[in-house]
Every structure is written in C-alpha cells, then in structure tokens.
Specification:
The protein is of the alpha+beta class and 99 residues long. It contains three helices and seven strands; from the N terminus they run βββαβαββαβ. The chain has a domain of 63 residues.
C-alpha cells in the first residue's frame, strides 16, 4: 500500500519494510502524461506534427522516484510513449537498501 506525503510516497514492500519514493515533478514526462486525464494510453511520438515534434526535442525531466530525474529529449529518446496510471505487482515487491 502506498501512502502519499507532500513530496514523497511511502511504498510498503510486503515484508514489513517500506521504500520512500520522491514525488515526480508536474513538468516531468510522467507528470505531463498523467495530466492528460486518461488511465492508459499509447502515443506514437514518430507521428507527431511539426509543432509538437519541436516540443519533443526539448529536455524534459524523466524518471525519478527512487533515483534522480534525468533530463531527456523525449522525441529523440523514445519512439512510443506508453502510459498507465496504476501499476500492480504479480508477486511480492522486493525492496533494496539505497545504501
């Protein structure tokens, strides 16, 4: 079970431990995809109109959570964006110390 905090998310690992994930930026690729309002979608970035293709060449924060975000030109890094707002695991989630 995940519990939201102002800038982080506590994720229960199923073994009594928790991982703390940093909340992703609203301007991150994941944040922007979530703002679309669809639970899931697939977007072919190769078919983007010129105005959108130019936007896709700009650096955007990507990833994060447990690790630092990377600045990525999404159109140059990916052909397709697959988004889902909820991910569940099929078996117990293993958590590792960031040590």
């Amino acid at each position: 079970m995940a519990k939201a905090k102002s800038n982080a998310l506590d994720l229960s690992c199923g073994d009594g431990t928790t991982e703390i994930l940093k909340r992703l930026s609203a301007q991150s690729i994941e944040g922007l995809a979530g703002a679309v309002g669809l639970r899931q979608f697939v977007l072919d970035l190769r078919a983007a109109p010129n105005a959108v293709a130019q936007w896709l060449t700009e650096l955007r924060p990507f990833g994060g959570g447990r690790y630092d975000e990377l600045d990525v030109p999404i159109g140059g890094a990916f052909d397709v964006l697959i988004y889902t707002d909820t991910v569940t695991y099929a078996s117990s989630l293993l958590c590792f110390s960031a040590g």
